[in-house]
Specification:
The chain has 340 residues and is α/β, with parallel strands linked by helices. The chain contains 11 helices and 14 strands. The protein has a single domain, classed as NAD(P)-binding Rossmann-like Domain (Rossmann fold, 3-Layer(aba) Sandwich), CATH 3.40.50.720. Strands 3-2-1-4-5-7-11 form a 7-stranded parallel β-sheet, sandwiched between helices. It has a 3-stranded mixed β-sheet with strand order 8-10-12. Strands 6-14 form a two-stranded parallel sheet. Strand 1, helix 1 and strand 2 form a beta-alpha-beta unit.
Amino acid sequence: MILVTGGGGYIGAVTVRHLLRAGFRVRVVDKFLFGTDVLRDVFNQIEIVRSDIRKLDQSAFEGITAVLHLAGLSNDPTAEFNPTANREINAGGTEYVARLAKQSGVRRFIFASSCAIYDRGLSGNPDLLSEEAPVSPKAAYALSKLEAEEALLRLADERFQPIILRQGTVYGWSPRMRYDLVVNTFVKTAHQRGSLILFCRGEMWRPLVDVNDTARCYLTCLEADLNKVGGQIFNVSFRNYRIRDLAHEVKDALAGFVDVDIEFDDTPQTVRDYRVSTEKTERVLGFHPKVTIAEAVHDIASRIQRGINADFDNPKYYNIRWMELLHAAEEIVRNTGSIF
């Protein structure tokens, strides 16, 4: 049985279905801050443990052969909204879950890290960075991911073999849809405005990967020889894109769905800028992403045309908006007590 933390999240909801189709038994650990509807059609096929990863009981690991650790606060705005919680969950929570897994005899532990660790700020044409490149992230989100990686590698030995996946910015449709990821944002904005806005003239680079390819990479790691991949870091990306080129690719892919213009906004912005090499991932894991930007854009746009996730103002599609809403509601209930 596979334990998936964050199985109700954007990547997790897709991954759980891939695992089931591959014949795995699945136990999901999640607080379900975004609700349980994202797994409604597979509820009778999985086990559910409702828990904060920082308070997870060791009993959750009974019968588990591998862990996919996807849980955590995701993206820069959410991390900066509460840096303390971000570090406690992303770094401390990861180490806590890993220690429980190790104590329970679980040897294979796959961790969803981030290529944001490589960010050095806008440099115009960043180097192509391998997993061995020196990193010194400054943003709270990337720093918490790096601290989590370091904790996992300290725990690594013959009895515990973490596999760390530094994922590019993910795109594509998920039952727990997000419109705060660059490709998905472009598709949403094109439908809302008929235009795409490029900050800093779209000069920054970003590695990108589809959500289904991300799930496929987890499956590859579950089946790989642990003696060859354990204790190692792998970059996961379909391609590195300059954002202005990405905008034109999205525009072309949306032909037939919506007419799109491209606009520039030269207002100074804090942006991420990095490119990564996937040579090691291809050579050691034998993994090659398949889903193109155009294919993912077509999928999202066709769903929007059918009214799926077309309510663009719904705060559930934006991590920071949803967290702010839940936090405000929590404060109100704490002060007023029960509504009825």
